[in-house]
Amino acid sequence: MSKIAEDLLYSESHEWVKVDGNVAIIGVSDFAQGEMGDITYVEMPDLDDEISAGDDFGALESVKTSSELVAPVSGKVIARNDVLEDEPERINEDPYGAWIIKVEMADKSELDALLNASAYAELVK
Amino acid sequence: MDNSLKLTCLHDLHVELGAKMSPFAGYDMPIQYSGIIDEHNAVRHAAGVFDVSHMGEIFVSGPDAESFVGHIFTNDVRPLPPGGILYGMMLYPDGGTVDDLLVYREFKPDHFLLVVNAANIDKDHAWILEQSAGFDVVIDNQSDAWGQIAVQGPEAEKAVCGALGFPEAAQLSFYTFCDLVREGRRVIVSRTGYTGEDGFEIYAAPEQIRAWWQALMAVGVKPCGLGCRDTLRFEAGLPLYGDELTADISPVMAGLGMFCKLDKPEFIGKDALVAQKAGGVAQKVVGIELADKAVPRHGYPVELEDGTQVGVVTTGYHSITLEKSICFALVDTAYAALGTPLWVRVRKNVFPGVVVKKRFYQTNYKK
Question: Which CATH superfamily is domain B56-141 in?
């Protein structure tokens, strides 16, 4: 059974969002890392890239598969977790600690389309 | 689980170990237990065991057995002694590959065992039967009656001789086998594998295979799934039928011409291979090493710097042992020479690479 952090929002494609004022901190869920297996590479956007909700903003690679990262919100990339370049396994070890990017949100109302923890728990049950 | 999937004799033990299961070749098979990287490293540095009971065992016997096997198989069984094994292919007349397989010459005269890929058992059996018209042979597909495990890695010999009680295995050289009897039943132990390491493949009745699997678990041999079976064979430069060999990819295109003996009087597909050798082939399977960590996957385009597509990736990984991104790709022959710069498109980006030898990892067979 995968863990679900209570205080986060989730997309149906298994990204999580932590809201900090106007900033969305984005990672992937415990369920997602479990399905992927050992993650070997994280493809991230560049700083200042504009990403759009619903579009790919990068990808995770495990030994066996690739999985695109889908933006849960739109906005400008203001930080990347560059530690993941050398230690992608941190996503396996601590999926809710190992954030991938931070985005300055263009439209906070997009958050309304995301799932809360209990709705996400239903999705992955 | 899909109820139409077949189960190997070890299925319940995989589930008990918590394996991630997935359909493969019509069977519900373990992909991984502890994780692909952990299992891969166990085989490179210690020992791992694979359930390969899904593989096919087709026995050919009769007065014409040797000439018939020689007719359908690219390698030359005539000089092969009893207890010897050869790798090779069965081909269509146009040189396309029906399957790649191992041929065992048994200790009884005029008896051979053909070990074929699980996904191809029915196709191969039908093909062999069809070709056997006019030959005095008996074709016996015993695939469902045999279980099989592969014990692989530098400590495989210790496990097979010790924990399993097969001291005979230590005497085997690479690509030979011995025929044993345990509990009144036939057991085949061969020094073969699909990992680039020393190791053994053991064929026996399902109950015996179950007991030996559990004996290997008890001494700490790591259970290994199909996930690392693929990463291991790939690093060792070994092809997988469906990726590097297909009905459209001949052994000459795949760079496996050394397993096709064109000095034999005849075999199905020989004329096509002779023509391919003489006139060249349009495409070849090559190795490509990328400078970046991005992972080339099956089906990704291989391009020139200007974006012209000249090939496609057949298998690719971020190599666990070598820690770099490498792939096999089928590319136009003009770009197949070692050192040729090529680019691989990974989603929206292209990454530069260079053609390298396909044996990415130096194998450790016991000769």
Answer: Aminomethyltransferase beta-barrel domains (3.30.70.1400)
pLDDT at B41 over 70: yes
Distance in Å, alpha carbon of B36 to nearest chain A alpha carbon: 7
Q: Computed from CA positions of residues A13, B314, A45, A35, in that sequence, does the dihedral angle turn out positive or negative?
A: positive
Q: Is B314 on the interface with A (CB under 8 A)?
A: no
pLDDT digits (tens, 9 = 90+) for B253-308: 999 999 999 999 999 999 999 999 999 999 999 999 999 888 999 999 999 999 99
- The answer to whether the CB atoms of B35 and A41 lie below 8 A apart is no
What is the full DSSP assignment across B298-317? TT-EEE-TTS-EEEEEEEEE
- Chain A residues with CB under 8 Å of B320 CB are 63
Beta-strand pair B222-224/A101-105: unpaired
Q: What is the pLDDT of residues B153-166, one digit of tens each?
A: 999 999 999 999 99
B35 and chain A: CB distance < 8 Å anywhere? yes
Contact criterion met (CB < 8 Å) for B36 and A66: no
Contact call for B347 and A59, based on CB within 8 A: yes
Task: Determine the structural domain holding residue A45 and report its residue range.
Answer: 9-108
Q: Is residue A25 part of a domain?
A: yes
Mutate to test the interface with A, among B228, B235, B293 (most CBs of A within 10 A): B293
> What is the residue type of B8?
T
Say which CATH number the domain at A37 has. 2.40.50.100
Which ipTM value was assigned to this complex? 0.79
Q: Count CB atoms within 10 A of the CB of residue A34.
A: 15
Quote the minimal CA–CA distance from B11 to chain A in Å.
21
CB pair distance less than 8 Å for A66 and B297: yes
CA distance B318 to chain A (A): 7
Nearest CA in chain B to A85: B293
CA atoms of B165 and B63, how far apart (whole Å): 35
Long-range contacts (CB closer than 8 Å, 24 or more residues apart) made by B280-283: B280/B333, B281/B250, B281/B252, B281/B253, B281/B333, B282/B332, B282/B333, B283/B253, B283/B311, B283/B330, B283/B331, B283/B332, B283/B333, B283/B336
Q: Which residues in B lie closer than 8 A to residue A61 (C-beta atoms)?
A: 294-295, 318
Q: Tell me which CATH code domain B282-356 carries.
A: 2.40.30.110
- φ and ψ at residue B232, rounded to 5 degrees: -70, -50
Tokens in use for B42? Answer: 């166990």
Q: CB distance A38–B297 less than 8 Å?
A: no
User: Distance between the two ends of chain B, CA-based, in angstroms?
Assistant: 43
d(CA B102, CA B80): 12
